[in-house]
Amino acid sequence: MRRRTVTAGNLEELLQVTAPATAPAAAPEQAAAAPAAAPAPREDHGLRTEFEFELPRGYVDEAGTVHRHGAMRLATARDELRPQIDLRVKENPAYLSVVLLSQVITRLGNITDVHAGIVERMYATDVAFLQDFYRRVNSEGHTRAAVTCPHCDGGFEVDLSGGRLGES
Fold this sequence. Notes:
The chain is of the alpha+beta class and 168 residues long. Helices cover 32% and strands 20% of the residues. It has a 3-stranded antiparallel beta sheet with strand order 1-2-3. The longest helix has 17 residues, at 124-140.
């Protein structure tokens, strides 16, 4: 097996080279001559790809506005591969979660351009919440968690995506 060093500049090339073998590769001449096909209309298969959440503390921006509500989309293989070539992650592996979260958070309050700098400035409790939320939606496919009442030892489920007690 041949090893290859990957930089951010050749990520697209690497992804094309490692594309599934089942997809026939068109010759460059054929690809250039073939007319651009219109994208197929998306079908709704009932797959939920974005999950709302509410941060325990909230992100405070430069103006002092607190942003608590947001949305996170399901991660793709590319989302998990991209941080591996990030120099900040290579220097400090703990930075991986910052880069990964910044790629999958689609909205935080009225902020739609969530980047690593925003995640860096979040409170540690919010980052820990988002890491657990990421794990739940990408591994288990839902945002529910089984909990036990510390007083009566009764078991029940809570939805980690937000909402206040008593709200439906």
